[in-house]
Every structure is written in C-alpha cells, then in structure tokens.
Amino acid sequence: xxxxxxxxxxxxxxxxxxxxxxxxxxxxxxxxxxxxxxxxxxxxxxxxxxxxxxxxxxxxxxxxxxxxxxxxxxxxxxxxxxxxxxxxxxxxxxxxxxxxxxxxxxxxxxxxxxxxxxxxxxxxxxxxxxxxxxxxxxxxxxxxxxxxxxxxxxxxxxxxxxxxxxxxxxxxxxxxxxxxxxxxxxxxxxxxxxxxxxxxxxxxxxxxxxxxxxxxxxxxxxxxxxxxxxxxxxxxxxxxxxxxxxxxxxxxxxxxxxxxxxx
Length: 263
Prior knowledge:
The protein has about 260 residues and is of the alpha+beta class. It has 8 helices and 10 strands. It has helices at about 30-40, 45-55, 60-65, 65-100, 110-125, 175-180, 225-240, 260, and strands spanning about 10-15, 20-25, 25-30, 130-140, 145-150, 160-165, 185-190, 195, 200-210, 215-220.
C-alpha cells in the first residue's frame, strides 16, 4: 500500500523507440532517466565515439544532405546507439525464451552470439523465473523502471538480474540501476495487477557478449548504493526545476535621485 493506504496505479506506455511511466496519474521518471541526468558516467567518450563512428560509417550518405540535417543526424547518433542496445537486450531475451519453449525462430545474424550466450547462461544457472520484464515503482521516492528478471538460480539464491549486451562490459552505474529496482515497493505483474515487490537475496548483471560467452557479475545493491542512486535522483530533479533562475534585475536608482527627479 502507498502512504495513503491505497494501491498505486502504475502505467508504462511504449511510444516510438522508448517508453514512459506514470505513477498515480503523474509523469514519473524511470531509473535509467534518473541516472542519465544525475550520475556522471563515461558519457563524453561514449558520445564522441558514437557520433564519430556514425559519421565515418555513413560518410557518403551524409555528404549528400543539407548541413543542418547532417549535423542533427551526427549529434543524435549516440541516442540511436543507446536505444539500439536497450532493444537488443530485450530481443535477445525474447528469442531465447521462444527457443527454450521449442519454437522455430530465426535469429538475426547480429544477435546470434548474444542469444547463444544467454542460452549458455540458462543452461549453467537454470533460472526459475518469477518476474520477467516487470515494471516497478517507488511511491516513496517517485521513480519507476522495468527490471529484466527476478529468478531463483541453481545456487539456491533469489536474484534480481539485469541483462546487458554492450560491447564494453559492465559499468558501475549498473549497480545503481539494479538497486533502484530492488528498492521499489511495487511491481506490475503480467496481468496488470500491482503487487508488493519481491524480496531478493542477490543482485547482478548478466553480460551477454557477441562471441557467445557470458559473465554473471554480482553487484553491490546495498543501502549504501541506494543512497547514491537517491543522490542522483535529487540532482536529476534539480535539473528539471524551472524556478531556480529569476528574471534579470534592473539596477536601483542612486539614493540622491528620487522618482520625481527622474521624471
């Protein structure tokens, strides 16, 4: 129950290449949005590489465009790269689940290594899935998110897991993302029913590499890590305030001048 004793209303809405959340009818940031705005990640190097790689790979096509259109595509390339990585993880999970269910599926060449890596993880750790791609929400701290998986693994522990298909490995901010999911108070089940968040014993990231190998990387999702996420959340909220800067002031009249003298 929320602070007023009622069950909260959690809505995740998909639109275009992304999604958004509402909590009790109010637009609410997702955990990844909080971290994008409030946590100093390795953004400068990543943004520069994404834009420069796009420019080099699409040089001829870009050369035929107006300069303004060319600039926008190069500038936005980093966001397309980020969104593609997020969609890749979701698609890998979906394809692997269909394969496990015995369905005939065609795996795109660019995902084949990641899917094989995930199948190897499933074979080694034998997860009993309790939640899969479930939206979560914190009424107390006002954020939402979508976790990849809560599962009981063969080691006997209940894990909250995030799947990553990035080329460069697992970054520290993954611990902040996972601890945000762990500390949510509610989740939305497959039937659209809001339920209290499941307790988990361990948290980790499954890094699914394109070379068909994987790593299960434990992360610190302790209260200390969650406090860092809340600090990032505070910074992200400050970034959205429109009442921080006032209107420019006019210099006051010298004391020797009165309003009548000026007139």
